[in-house]
Each structure stands twice: as structure tokens, then as C-alpha cells.
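Researcher: Let's do a round of design. I'm pasting the C-alpha cells now; please hold your answer until I've finished.
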């Protein structure tokens, strides 16, 4: 890892130059953070689990026509991804009241929302990722009206698909965060799903008990964070009973 040129380091991942032009290597760390990095810990094995879970979900989304930056998994902690121009907006899709939504609007955790709600937040740790509107996004040039429409449409498609997928293994998709990027191919540009999809950025509750199996176990000091992530991987059928181990990567996404 030290011999490769580091491009970026975030709270949960490191990006390195890829083997070919237009590619990057995404490395999943074991670091866990919350409350804008005010709370920090290292959860042994979290990066391995997030790598496998995100790989699985990105491949499933690709199969139903959602374009992503994912190419293939390289090993236990790394993925090969396409280099994209990240749109500086975090898209949050909410199906059930939890977290900041309940605090802002006085809605009890676990309340089923009348319909799925899409919110936008500016990617800025310094500002605490403030909520913004479409007017802010277009006025400041973070994305165009056409891009916002496409992001909204793709986010709802992802929500529909993942809600059904998780329900099939006994999990409620409460809410989740997405990021999108511009993929340039010569003079052509298209929007693709970027970053990751894992228990780090999805709230996933057991259908019968409402047990939290996601990053809220860390945020709320519920304990057994890695066990929650392992349970999600087990239900998705991607974690052997013996625990995490490396497997041959999937075929390259086209």
C-alpha cells in the first residue's frame, strides 16, 4: 500500500491511484466515526465486511441497470473503481423516521413515513454537512437541474430495489446515504452511483425486533458493532459461518 500514490483519505476509506488511467483503488479502513468525527474508534474487521457488502450491493444494482463506479473487488479490503468527479451533495433517502429527522420534526423513531423522503446535504465536514435545497444546489452550481432530476430518479430506484432486497432477508431499510459522480468518457459524461453502500451509511433494522444492525450500534453505544455488520453479511449470503475470508473477485463490470 505504501508504494502506491495516495489520492485522498476520508473517515472510512483511502483512495489510491489505480493501475490504469481513469481508475482508483478504494481501501476500506476499520475506523468508525460519528457526530462529525467527534466520536472515533477502530472496529476490527469492519473494513473487510463493508468491502464485501458494498461489492455485493453495487453488483446487484448494476444488474438492474443502475450505473456505478464499481469495477471489481481486488482483495479483502480493496476495490477497483472508476475515477469520477464527485458531486458535493450527500443524498439521504428516508423510509422510516430515525436519527436527525425525528429530532428536527419531533417524530418518534420507527414511525413509517407517508412516502419516501429525499433530502440533500452539502458535503462539508467543516460546516457539519448542512441540509440544502435544490435551489441552493443549482444556484451555487454544485449540480444542474437536469442532474438533480437524474439523481432523484436514480435514488428512488435504488431505494425501491434495496428495500425489497433487504426485506427478503428480514431487514427494514430505514434510511441510507448515497453519493453520485460524473464519469467522463472522452467528451461524454454520465452520472453514476459512487462511494459505498454498507451498514456505515444505511440504517438496517431487524423486521421482527427492530434491532439495529448498522452504524447506530456505534453511535448509540449499543455494543457488538462488528457482530451487527456480520449479521447483515450473513443474511445477504456473503459471509461464511467461519467469518470473513477472502474470495475470488467477481467479473469486471462493463
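Researcher: That's everything. Go ahead.
Model: Designed sequence:
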Amino acid at each position: 500500500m505504501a508504494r502506491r500514490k495516495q489520492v485522498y483519505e476520508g473517515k472510512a476509506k483511502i483512495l489510491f491511484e489505480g493501475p490504469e488511467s481513469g481508475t482508483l483503488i478504494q481501501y476500506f479502513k476499520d475506523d468508525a466515526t460519528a457526530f462529525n468525527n467527534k466520536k472515533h474508534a477502530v472496529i476490527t474487521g469492519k473494513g473487510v465486511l463493508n468491502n464485501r457488502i458494498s461489492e455485493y450491493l453495487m453488483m446487484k444494482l448494476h444488474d438492474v441497470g443502475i450505473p456505478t463506479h464499481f469495477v471489481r473487488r481486488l482483495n479483502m479490503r480493496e476495490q477497483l473503481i472508476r475515477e469520477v468527479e464527485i458531486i458535493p451533495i450527500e443524498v439521504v433517502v428516508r423510509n422510516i423516521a430515525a436519527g436527525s429527522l425525528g429530532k428536527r420534526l419531533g417524530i418518534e423513531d420507527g414511525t413509517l413515513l407517508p412516502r419516501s423522503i429525499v433530502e440533500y446535504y452539502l458535503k462539508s465536514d467543516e460546516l457539519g454537512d448542512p441540509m440544502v435545497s435544490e435551489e441552493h444546489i443549482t444556484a451555487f452550481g454544485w449540480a444542474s437541474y437536469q442532474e438533480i432530476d437524474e439523481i432523484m430518479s436514480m435514488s428512488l430506484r435504488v431505494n425501491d430495489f434495496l428495500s425489497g432486497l433487504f426485506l427478503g432477508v428480514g431487514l427494514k431499510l430505514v434510511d441510507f446515504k448515497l453519493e453520485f459522480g460524473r464519469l467522463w468518457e472522452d467528451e461524454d459524461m454520465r452520472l453514476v452511483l459512487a462511494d459505498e453502500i454498507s451498514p456505515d451509511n444505511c440504517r438496517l433494522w431487524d423486521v421482527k425486533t427492530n434491532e439495529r444492525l448498522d452504524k447506530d450500534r456505534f453511535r448509540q453505544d449499543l455494543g457488538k458493532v462488528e457482530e451487527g455488520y456480520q449479521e447483515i453479511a450473513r443474511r445477504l449470503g456473503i459471509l461464511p459461518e467461519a467469518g470473513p475470508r477472502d474470495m475470488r473477485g467477481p467479473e469486471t463490470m462493463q
